[in-house]
ISKra4 family transposase
Amino acid sequence: MGLAVPYAAAAELLTDVLPINSGANAPTVRQHALRAASRIERELTEERVSFMQDSCPRDWMNLPIPDGRIVIGLDGGYIRDRNDRKKNFELIVGQSLPEDGDLRYIGFVHGYDGKPQRRVLDHLKKQGVQANQDITFITDGGDEVRSLAEMIAPGSEHVPDWFHITMRITVLRQFAQGLENHDEQAGQDMLDTLRRIKWHLWHGNAYRAREEIDDLLYDAEPPKLIIRTCASSGRPSATSSSTSPPTVQA
């Protein structure tokens, strides 16, 4: 309870539901929560990064057939330090949902937690996850969060969540809209490509989306973009190369 609501609110609730005066207050609830957290921390074994560690793939055939895929979402966010307002720390939280089972939550402070991947493994094992089970990790695509899920299990799949995909597309759209001021056709082509990428991703067509992304990366390379923009505007420009930079005339 002390982890789900503020300590003072938990103390008030205990006072209301307990038949006698428990003497619970915010500091007492906080101390109980910290003791419980310390006990859970001690139960963690040495750091492990994968179900595959200290195991042989040959033995996975002897495991029972798993119930189905489990989906675990992880996201990170920064919280300002209570004592030093100029500092902040990264909190990583998530939830896991098996096809047949209860939802479980996980959370820890990145950088302070000494066993982050072991904590994720322990969390999954408590839900009955096996080495031969399919796992889908939905993350924000950040390096810190993604590194936690890498190599956890051989049957894992890593998917960026839709919110963070659209955030990145929005940033690229702003760039394309700015490009329109210099080259209207190039800006419109880039906007059309971004719309197609978003459409393909939304409909699960990763292959076509990857093709469009590769084309966009090729067209957006600085030398090609500068040459195309200057050619359409009639302005000369110098582009970088491995040797001396050539001058491109319209």
